[in-house]
Amino acid sequence: MEWLDRQWVDTVLEALTAFFLVAGSLITFISSFGMVHLRDFYLRMHGPAKATTLGVGLVLFASSLYFILIERTFHIQLILVTIFLLITAPISAHLLAKAALHRKLPSTPDTRGAPGELKPEDTAREPDTPHPEHPGGTAPQRPEQPQ
Predict the structure, then answer these.
(1) In angstroms, rounded to a whole number, what is the distance separating the alpha carbons of residues 25 and 62?
(2) What pLDDT, on the 0 to 100 scale, is given for residue 52?
(3) What sign results for the dihedral spanned by CA atoms 147, 105, 107, 118?
(4) 3-state class of 96 per DSSP?
(5) What does pTM read for this prediction?
(6) Euclidean distance between the first and final Cα of the chain, in Å?
(7) Residue 131 near residue 123 (C-beta atoms within 8 A)
(8) What is the pLDDT of residue 16?
(9) How far apart, in whole angstroms, are the C-alpha atoms of residue 146 and residue 139?
(10) 10-residue block means of pLDDT along the chain (147 residues)?
(11) Which long-range contacts (CB under 8 A, 24 or more apart) does 88-95 make?
(12) Beta bridge partners of 134
């Protein structure tokens, strides 16, 4: 197996690492345009959620691939950051969307799924116990959000 020398294998591994690095960078770059050009919060939220999960995940995968296969070292920090990112990014996007629904943020007709479809039991209501600063139960009212 003379054709399978160390230099050729390193070149292929570096090309594979470069592919994942460029793919992750392109996904992150393209999704940043989504955040800038889309019209409402619900549509805008999609870009950064995908960028952090897929784009940055691919960049971290390329980095760990480089250190494991080419540098011959293992960094547990890269694996832990990747796992943390893949767990927290979808959860934070879900919580942002839920907060937007509770605040009744307006949406454009292009948004699929009609984000204003909250069941009555899912909407916020007055607490059963009075606020400590307002024991009479009359807390200061928030101004209404324009629709």
Answers:
(1) 11
(2) 77
(3) negative
(4) helix
(5) 0.65
(6) 71
(7) no
(8) 92
(9) 21
(10) 73 91 92 82 81 87 88 86 88 87 78 62 60 59 57
(11) 89/49, 89/52, 89/53, 90/49, 90/53, 93/45, 93/48, 93/49
(12) 131
Domain coordinates of the chain in residue numbers?
2-106
Q: Is 137 left (phi over 0), alpha (psi -120 to 50) or beta?
A: left
pLDDT at residue 127, as a whole number = 54
| Other beta carbons less than 10 A from residue 147's beta carbon | 7
Q: Are 55 and 27 in contact (CB under 8 A)?
A: yes
CB 79 within 8 A of CB 64: yes
CB 22 within 8 Å of CB 15: no
Residue whose structure tokens are 């691939």 = 65
The rounded distance, in Å, linking the Cα atoms of 113 and 124 is 21
Q: Are 11 and 34 in contact (CB under 8 A)?
A: no
